[in-house]
Amino acid sequence: KMRLIIGIGGVTNGGKTTLTNRLLKALPNSCVVHQDDFFKRPDQIEVGEDGFRQWDVISALDMEAMTNTVKGWQENPVKFARSHGVSLSPEAEKPDSVHILIVEGFLIYNYKPLLDVYDKCFYISIPYEECKRRRSTRTYTVPDPPGLFDGHVWPMYLKHRKEMDYNCDRIEYLDGMTSKDDIYNAAYESIQNALLNNL
Ligand SMILES: Nc1ncnc2c1ncn2[C@@H]1O[C@H](COP(=O)(O)OP(=O)(O)O)[C@@H](O)[C@H]1O
Ligand SMILES: NC(=O)c1ccc[n+]([C@@H]2O[C@H](COP(=O)(O)O)[C@@H](O)[C@H]2O)c1
């Protein structure tokens, strides 16, 4: 079976989930792992010297559990799809069938053990002003306290982004300020090329 693991990383509210959902619809036999599903419980999140719960750091996430979930897909994508309620194409069990996993999240390129699993590494970014605007319209399971964006979210983004640029040289950047269609088309084309090249 041919297998492709696609990373969709990027800044908070850059459009990762939007792009991921469109790709899942378009790509047969595709499954997803959302990093957001691996946040620890609020009482397990450290409170920093700044007084903020430190959500935007890798230790706020159970990355071992996330890695094991990805490994589960690698071992048996058909079983993974079934247990996650993904309907498969009639060809899915043939030896030459293609299976795709999308790994989506804001810190997916800041955890060494996962870096090598991605066949494709996309990264969506948007500038500060737009990020702050979009974030202010969003409500997480724990709502942002006043000042969190400027005091924690954006500084941590800058730090992790630097780290990523240093650790990973295969990133394909997507401009989150372009339209949803443009972003989707750019990613889709790149994925089709990878599939054609038997990546
Ligand atoms: N290309 C885009 N242009 C304008 N708004 C967008 C675009 N992509 C996503 N959005 C909007 O930005 C917000 C965050 O998008 P989402 O996909 O949930 O981001 P993420 O998963 O990266 O946090 C949503 O309101 C979404 O509709
Ligand atoms: N899902 C949760 O339980 C939860 C709780 C608090 C904050 N967050 C925020 O989620 C963000 C990452 O997710 P997005 O990339 O989808 O915005 C982080 O910036 C973090 O501050 C998520």
Describe the 3D structure.
InterPro entries: P-loop_NTPase. This is Nicotinamide riboside kinase 2. Belongs to the uridine kinase family. NRK subfamily. Keywords: ATP-binding, Kinase, Magnesium, Metal-binding, Nucleotide-binding, Pyridine nucleotide biosynthesis, Transferase. The protein has 199 residues and is α/β, with parallel strands linked by helices. It has a single domain (2-196), classed as P-loop containing nucleotide triphosphate hydrolases (Rossmann fold), CATH 3.40.50. Helix content is 41%, strand content 17%. It has 7 helices and 5 strands. The chain has helices spanning 16-26, 63-75, 77-83, 112-115, 128-136, 148-167, 180-196, and strands spanning 2-10, 30-34, 98-105, 120-125, 171-175. Strands 2-3-1-4-5 form a 5-stranded parallel sheet, sandwiched between helices. Helix 1 packs across helix 7 and helix 2 (63-75) crosses helix 3. The radius of gyration is 17 Å and the shape is globular. The model has no long low-confidence stretch (mean pLDDT 96). Beta-nicotinamide ribose monophosphate is lined by residues 12-13, 16, 36, 39, 55-56, 106, 140-142, 153.
Q: How large is the share of residues in beta strands?
A: 15-25%
The biggest beta sheet is recorded as: 5 strands, parallel
Radius of gyration: 17 Å
Average pLDDT: 96
Tally of distinct domains: 1
Helix segment tally: 7
Percentage of residues in helical conformation: 40-55%
- Within the largest sheet, what's the order of strands? 2-3-1-4-5
Named once each, the bound ligands are: adenosine-5'-diphosphate, beta-nicotinamide ribose monophosphate
Architecture per CATH nomenclature, i.e. the level-2 architecture: 3-Layer(aba) Sandwich
The CATH superfamily label reads P-loop containing nucleotide triphosphate hydrolases
Quaternary status: single chain
The level 1 CATH classification is: Alpha Beta
CATH topology: Rossmann fold
Q: Which structural class matches the secondary elements?
A: alpha/beta
Distance between the termini: 13 Å
Order of helices and strands: EHEHHEHEHHEH
